[in-house]
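Revision sheet: structure tokens.
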Amino acid sequence: MRCHRAPTVLGSGQSEERDPLPVRTESQLGEPCWIDLETRDPARSIAFYGAFLGWRAVDTGADSGRYTMFFHGDAAVAGLTIQDPSGGNRDFWTTFLASDNVDETVQAANAAGATVFAPPQTIGDQGRLAVLTDPAGAAVGIWEAGFFAGFGADNEIGTPVWHELITRDFPAAIAFYEQVFGWTPIPLSDTTDFRYSTFGHDESMTGGVCNADAMLPEGVPSHWQVYIGVANVRAAAARVPELGGTVLREPWDSDFGTFAQIADATGAAFLLGQVQPEVS
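Predicted:
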């Protein structure tokens, strides 16, 4: 059902009592820089990620639409947005890619066959964002940093460690992100059974693209998915049902590490990737 051979993790407006948002080194164009959870039940989601990953939730206040920031330690690692339960949509994670100019990126994306879902908008002094669907139908966010650059930490335990585009049209997706976001795709495998490329700039790896048309069930669109780092995938996955979540795919080993696919307490899916703790 999914591509599970990501070459990743082992190689590698606010309230009065608000926490300062840590500033991360600026991301290059097209690099994943943020993830955002849309949930119908924010209290349940906050409880799940707090218990499971040790994330601390901070409400940024009414002026920001009650947007919630998740912190791992002192580092911002994700956000939470409330969605209307009456809409009938599942809960889901959105990956945001960095842009120097959201308006120009949206214009280029539109010309390259994307559909704009949420037009560019300013988020106080934090930055500007937009959301679109690529030519193969995968929803992706765009973030132009103002005060807030994105992840305060990544590629560590308790933080995002890999971002993956699962696409029904591999050639169209690769061409789109090359053209609009300046990716340099590097083929990992290019056979009829398994087509997968990493992407980044100057041969660096910041994520992957998987040809999944033959793998996805009917009705499941192209989509982005995020991997979160944990110290022990099997132990972490065993805790998921206790916290109200679901193990969608039991832990497995690959040439690139140990992984599992889970859904949180409200059904938003993501993957776990095993990361070696840093040696102090």
